[in-house]
Amino acid sequence: MRDINSYDVGISQNSKHFVFIFLVRNKNFSGGGGEIWVSKESLKVERTSNYF
Fold this sequence. Notes:
- The protein has 52 residues and is mainly beta.
- The protein has one domain (4-50).
- Helices cover 0% and strands 52% of the residues.
- The protein contains no helices and four strands.
- It has strands at residues 7-13, 17-24, 34-39, 45-50.
- It is elongated and about 40 Å long.
């Protein structure tokens, strides 16, 4: 599951952050994916979250 092509990727934003969401494409695989929140001001990762 290390191949980026194994995931669907979504990008969203609010006033302070860019949010990148990764969801596993393989429907036979249970769980996987996550979120990365990046500050618009500093462009640093401020929060991560994994989906199980």
